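Run log, item B.
One chain of 185 residues. Sequence copied directly from the ordering sheet:
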Amino acid sequence: MTTIFERMQAGEPLRKDDPDYARFSEVVARTIRLCVQMNATATELDQVRSHLSAIIGTEIDESTTIFPPFYTNFGQFIRLGKNVFINHTCSFLDIGRITIEDEVQIGPGVKLTSENHSLDPADRKTVLLQPILIKRNAWIGAGATLLPGVTVGENAVVAAGAVVSRDVPPNTVVAGIPAKVVKTF
């Protein structure tokens, strides 16, 4: 039998009646506590990296910079590459997994959500999981939102305020709601 975390990693829906749901809730409670602590006390970049490393369960490379406040609901399914920059007030809902490759820049107020809910009213509390992948050297502009299942291609730019609901090809700029390709380079 697999654990709830293995089922989540495999993209299976997350239901409150799962026999292991209490284990998931424990991680969420820990993450909330550690995020509040990090945002209230970390005054140096090394401290932020240290706190966030504890939240995500893996060491963050010293070349990566995160400006607090930073928010996540689970934390353990975030993977950050080298030389990543994450500006103030970003929110990563990572239950479905978020992977950010090397050299990525993320503007202030960006929201990455790898989870959604069923459209079926009878099953609305079920959480549907789809990973977000941001490839090397991408730039996510201020206030952009990336929705579940999106891949942002290498060197791509997501304009400020865009809502990305489908994959972004490499070497393009997307803008708008929903985001569409406005430039290729």
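Observations after the first pass:
- DSSP finds three helices and 18 strands in the chain.
- The CA atoms of residues 55 and 75 lie 6 Å apart.
Flagged for discussion on Thursday.
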